[in-house]
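Thread: quick sanity check before group meeting

JM: Hey all, I'm pulling together slides for Thursday and realized we never actually wrote out the predicted structure for the chain we discussed last week. Dropping the sequence here so it's in one place. If anyone has concerns about the input, flag it before I start.
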Amino acid sequence: MKSVSKTINVKRLILYPLVTLLTVLMLGEYAFVFFKKDKLEEQKKYVDTLTKTLSEVIQKEIIVVTSATSMLETLLRQDHFATTNFNDWSREILSINENVSNLQLAPGGIVMDIFPLEGNEQAIGHDLLDDPKRSIGARIAVDSKELTFIGPVRLIQNNRLAVIARKPVFRYKNQQETFWGFTIALIYVEELMGDLLSGLDDLGLNYQLIGSNPDSLTQPIIAASIQPISNQAMQYPVLVPNGEWLLSVEYHFESLTDDFLYHGLILLMASLLSYFAFIYERKSQLQQIELVSLNQQLESLAYFDSLTGLRNRRSASDIAQELFHLAQHSQVPLIVAFLDIDYFKHVNDVHGHQAGDVILKALSNLCAKSCRESDIIARWGGEEFIVFLPYTDLDYALVFCETLRKNISMECFMYESEKIEFTISIGLSEVAPADKSIEDVIKRADEALYLAKKNGRNRCEVSLG
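JM (edit): ok, ran it. Output follows.
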């Protein structure tokens, strides 16, 4: 697995707000030079720059929020569309997505799971595809197969205004792609935009942010200033998944002739935007670290045995195929050794399964210490282990296995003040010219292991091709 940084990129965290600060200050100073010649034009230029920046900041926040639906889909697929762990997933996702109010799963378009559930019980069973007030937006998401932003809409469960991110999820059955349902992230309007736009009134700015709701004849207002916006306001689109919002901003000052007031306003705006840039860049980096960490955990679960830390059967099989092709095409020797703990069931019956786990870990550690870096060791299943020994002839492999077997037989392991001794049986086989696949070699090693068991256990046997 690739190693990744687990820390904040301090250089980028400082540089991004600094560039934002300097850029806004330079634009403001440039506007001031020409202010007296054409005050209205300069005001428009500044508001144009501000509106662009706010639009980009809003878009960045939306990306951070909507990632929650993608994370929920990833975990859903990881559990093969079983939803029993939904609350655990949601709790983890919400911990790194502060603005998301709740998460939902809607298999077949019907809301069945909500976290947190308290206060949202009335939404359980809500059929999005059948509700006249929701169906158009829901079907747009399904037909386009894209994440779709709807809102703001007034929720049926608590009458609050919220923006809804719906991600349609599809799965393959019988080689056909079928609609499974939606992963949904719900964000209350005041939590999404309150901190971002509420301070603009005090800065002498009117603003209005219009959302998108295909289920309504009128476009809903997400946020607006105390004073209404005029038709002279600067307008910029805010691209959202499968749609578009519209942000409008303008001055409502009657006069800006005071140079000190103007420079103070520029500095305040630059500082405010620089602060926003710092907050959102830090949030983005923290989320990226969490996503990478989650992906690493999922990758580890897919390729490594959780008890012993060794490779699992799937991982070892993939590598073994490559070693087999190398052995066949380059005449490089390859030995397969099958290990099995003798009377392992007796250990579990007498000492308990926790003692059995201790024995499995102990054997794993001894094997790992004995193997070379080029050797591949894996837990094949239960008390069975397998070792692939590349660049190794049969004579050396026998010496290696006999040494390992004897060392284990002489060890005494402690579990809760009890001494536990155990032995292993080993079956070996080497790649032969007639072998068609690595499974042929593994099968012979398994037969040799069976022979070792039959001949009294605690021994090594070889099966030749």
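AS: nice. Residues 74 and 295 are 10 Å apart (CA to CA). Residues 313-462 form a domain with the Alpha-Beta Plaits fold (CATH 3.30.70.270).
JM: adding both to the slides.
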